[in-house]
Amino acid sequence: MNKQASCISKENPYCELAQSYLDCIRGSSRNEAVRLILDAVNRGVDIQDIYMYVFQPVQYEMGRLWLANQISIAQEHYCTAVTQLIMSHLYPRIMTFEKNGLSMVACCVGGELHELGIRMVTDLLEMKGWDTYYLGANMPEKEVVRSVKDQNVHLLAVSATLTSNRPRVEAIIKEVRQTPGLEGVKIMVGGHAFLQEPGGWEKIGADGSAMDAVQAVELAFSLCS
């Protein structure tokens, strides 16, 4: 029996909503999961709270259950797909015309397919008035650097889940640092690959790293203010 505590803690202010969402996903009830979240937002639950207190802990919980051999990798991927679907439904609600003048390119490195976390960061910053350019998963290094230069952004956010992909993150950072015209671009990194070694971001030349999506938003403002 797996005795590790659930990632949906009782201290979570939306514990019941998160648990209900998890139950829907584990029961393969996609439509019910969508309805559950949209109803919560319509009742006034802040979208940032949905991301932080529902999507994030449920995703962590599905990962925990997979590691404990209680669900299949297909079920974990199903959870991600449903959450991405709901995020797409929510996107029109997070767009704002009150821009703050800050901009960011965000992506996962080449070989990295776990993109939900960095997409959450992108959406949350969009809610805060940033112009964001989300490139998605599995991005080649040179294409990332080209996008940073073409979009003339203030910040590059790079995510990696697998520790084996950290050298690719480092390669992107090195390429950005060596590209004329990008001297002022700040770089933050995140994902499970950096949670395992606090401070590891400094070794590869990043300007900072965040533990979760909300912390990443705070860091983005701190780096670019």
UniProtKB/TrEMBL annotation:
Pfam families xref list: B12-binding (PF02310), B12-binding_2 (PF02607)
Coiled-coil blocks: none
Domain of life: Bacteria
Single GO molecular function: metal ion binding
InterPro entries registered for this protein in UniProt: Cbl-bd_cap, Cobalamin-bd, Cobalamin-bd_sf, Meth_synthase_dom
Domain B12-binding: 101-225
Name of the protein: Cobalamin B12-binding domain protein
Organism encoding this protein: Desulfonatronospira thiodismutans ASO3-1
